[in-house]
Design brief:
By secondary structure, this protein is α/β, with parallel strands linked by helices. It has one domain: 3-Layer(aba) Sandwich (Rossmann fold), CATH 3.40.50. Helices cover 41% and strands 17% of the residues. Strands 2-1-3 form a 3-stranded parallel sheet, sandwiched between helices. α2 runs parallel beside α3. The longest helix is centred in the middle third of the chain and has 13 residues.
Length: 82
């Protein structure tokens, strides 16, 4: 499924999956787990920011349309916190 920089055999890559739709979280997460990635699942923007800070994922798959805090706002807050 994914290749290149994320497919390093020396360690398991961590992906933070953010979506407010449970079905999407399930589909995406199961697909990535089968490929050997460590998955962190959250369903809102605030959780995403907290998990990104504590877990330091290699990649964040971020839904752009979510209630309370959309993906653009989450991205801006993550960039500002670096």
């Amino acid at each position: 499924m994914l290749s290149g920089a994320l497919k390093d055999k020396s360690r398991t890559r961590k992906i933070l999956v953010v979506d407010d739709e449970p079905d999407m979280l399930s589909i995406v997460s199961k697909s990535l787990i089968v490929e050997g990635y460590e998955i962190i699942i959250v369903n809102n923007g605030m959780e995403c920011i907290d998990k990104a800070k504590s877990e330091h994922p290699d990649l964040i798959l971020l839904d752009s349309v979510m209630p309370n805090m959309n993906g653009q706002t989450v991205l801006a807050k993550l960039k500002a916190s670096q």
